[in-house]
Amino acid sequence: MGQHALLSPSAAHRWINCAAAPRLEAGVEDNGSPYAAEGTLAHAYCAKKLKEFLGLPTEGEAAEIKSLHDEYHSGEMDEYTDTYKVIVLEKLNGARAKTADAQLLVETRLDFGEYVPEAFGTADAIIIADGVMEVIDFKYGKGVHVEAKENPQMMIYALGAFDKFSFDYRIERVRMTIVQPRIDNLSEWEISINDLLHWANNVLTPAAKKAYAENGEQVPGKWCQFCKVKSSCKALAKKCIAVVQQNNDPRLLKPEELAKEVLPELATVKTWLTGVEDYALEQALAGVKLPGWKVVEGRSNRKITDPAKVATTLSNEGYVESQIYKPTELVSLTELEKLTGKKRFTELCGAYIEKPQGKPTLAPESDKRPVFNSVAEDFKDID
User: Quick check: helix, strand or coil at residue 178?
Assistant: First the structure.
């Protein structure tokens, strides 16, 4: 297992806002998850495909793929990592049209120590050319839509890449690109080197120094979503309980109060409540006494242990197959797409697929989705 920086770029959105988070999280063991392993495998495929194009050795990627392939590989992973490769190479060709000796670097180790104490990381891809340098990050997850604009992780990688290559290239601007193919997200954002350095000196480094110290302040907010200690954080608990207590009957709230005071905190409260429930059960199972509470057996459903024998027994009693067996049905759309890859499945079966209108849900004005159009709205202007 590789080293991890205390102030990792991927958690910068959290420690920039909550200086206490890194030291508190450092005491919690990271057991990993299937999603993380799946992402690791997808990243290995991305790196291998680009390195093969460049004629570079791929022994490290091949070993990682071999260790994870059987459990986490799918047809759609091949498709999405191919998409990443195509996007990166298209960008490389664009850079070479302007700078003949533009370079593509894959899995580049970067040092951010000048701005963040003892921080380092590895950039998925960097395209270096005169004028504009591009830092590209591959995201295999699909649960959270990730934007490049003002993304602190990407800005830190941009700083590291600039420090490493600015002596050899004239770099005036940095483009940051996030490729998140499973949700068709290609997000790009550019910033001048002067503005990037201003942010580093006035926002990043002061926040990093506070977070690296051992007495940082706990500041709860939307950045708590993936914090390892959110379930036991007193500051977050106090904030969430206050939101609930002050607004225990939403029917008494004015629309302005609902929009400005409650809805912005909803995701944080939901995340905290789920985390608290999981943490409490974990503690109770470990033998910690929670006054007034106990662990009991949850509901479970009976299951047949030997379907073949049950079928044979009922057939011998005179019951026909249509009474014993379910009709054959297709597996889920997601599973079918994994068989062939999403693109190939759409080519083969797209004519037989429809997507009904989703249920209405509240979202901030900044959400890119259009306003929900109900049937009532469709007929509102008809006389």
Answer: strand
